[in-house]
Amino acid sequence: MSIEVSALERFAPGRGKALLRKVSLDVPDSAFVALVGPSGAGKTTLLRAIAGLDPYQAGTVSLDGQVMEDVSARAGQVGFVFQNYALFPHMTAARNIAFGLDVLPAARRPTRARINERVRELLELMQIPDLGGAYPARLSGGQRQRVALARALATGPRVLLLDEPFGALDPIVRRSIRSWLRELHDRLGLTTILVTHDQEEALDVADRIVVMQDGQIVQDASPVDLDSSPATEFVMEFLGEAVSFPGIVGAGRMVLDDPLVLPFSVPDSVADGPAVAMIRPYEIQLVPAQPGQNAPLRAVPRGARNGYRHYVLNCAGHDGIPFFLPQDGADHALEGAALDISRARLFRNGLACL
Ligand SMILES: Nc1ncnc2c1ncn2[C@@H]1O[C@H](COP(=O)(O)OP(=O)(O)OP(=O)(O)O)[C@@H](O)[C@H]1O
C-alpha cells in the first residue's frame, strides 16, 4: 500500500509554532523508509499525522491514492508501534496480540477460534511461539517489542509505522531485531516507515532515508545517494562524523585555506568563489607534502584498536581529526605528509554545490 503525504501543515495547539511545514512525501508500495533527524525535527508529529492519531491543519494523507479524511478509515490499514506504547500488563502476550481483533465490532470480529489461530501464527512469525501465556513483566525488552509488533500486525495492516521501537534495547539485540524486521517487512509485503535516532540502523535497514529538520524534509534519498551527495552541510554532519575545510574554488580547482591540504579538481559546474569541503575522516588520505609545504602535521597517537593505530591529526586550521593507520603500516607515512581530501563534498551557504 502506498502512502502519499501532500503539503501537510500542523501547528502547535492555539495556532502556535509550525510543527510540520508543508511536508510532502511519497512512499511507494512495499518501500522501507527511515525517518531521521535531530530531536524536535517533527518525526513523531509526521508519523502520528500519517497514522491518523493527531489532526493537521492543511494538506492530505492518502493511502493507495485515496485521501484519508476520516481518521477511522485508517484503522485496520495502519499498524503502529511506539517506544512507549506499552503492553497491557494484566494481559498475557497472546491476549495483548489479540486485542485489536477482540475490540472489533461483532460484525467484523473473527471467531474466537480464528483469533486464537491468528495469535498462534503471529507468535510463530515473531519467533516467540512459546511465550503466548507469558505476562509482559516476564518478557525481555526485545520479546516485548516483538509482542507489540505482533499486536500491530494482528489486524493485517498493509502499512507499518514504527517510532523508535527499539530505542530501549541494548545494541546487540537491536542489531539482530532490525535485520529480522527487514525480513518480516519483505515477507509480508508491508510498506514501513521507521523513525530512528540511530543513523547506522537507518542506513542498514531502509531503502530510502528521509531527513527532517525543523518541521521540513531536507532530503529524501537512498542510503548511497545520501552519503555521496548530501544536500546540505547539516545532512552531511548528521549522518556521521565530518571534517570541514574552507577554501576557494577557481579555475576548476578547490584551493583550501589550510596549506597542509592539497588542492583538488572540481567539475566545471561549480561556480568560482568561497566554498566549504566536507569529508568523512576515513576518506582522508595521507600523501607526501608538496615542496614548500612546511607547516607541520602533528599526529598524536591515541592507542590501537581492531588492528589499526589511532591518531589525532592537528594541522593549521584543524585540531582533532581522527585518523587510522594499519597496525603493521609504517609510521613514517605521517612524517612530512599532506592531506588529500579529493573525496570531499562541496558546499556553499550550507547547500551542496556539486
Ligand atoms: N501537542 C504539541 N503541542 C506543542 N508542541 C508540540 C506538540 N507536539 C509536538 N510538539 C513540538 O513539536 C516539535 C516536534 O516534535 P516531535 O516529537 O515530532 O519531534 P521528533 O523529531 O520526533 O523528536 P524526537 O526525536 O525527540 O522524538 C517539538 O518542538 C515538540 O516540542
Automatic annotation (TrEMBL):
- Report the transmembrane regions from the record: none
One GO molecular function term of this record is: ATP hydrolysis activity
A Gene Ontology biological process noted in the UniProt record is: quaternary ammonium group transport
Database matches in InterPro entries? AAA+_ATPase, ABC_SmlMolc_Importer, ABC_transporter-like_ATP-bd, ABC_transporter-like_CS, P-loop_NTPase
Superkingdom, taxonomy of origin: Bacteria
Q: Where is the ABC transporter domain?
A: 3-239
Could you tell me what this protein is called? Sulfate/thiosulfate import ATP-binding protein CysA
Native species of this protein? Acetobacter peroxydans
Q: Which gene encodes it?
A: cysA
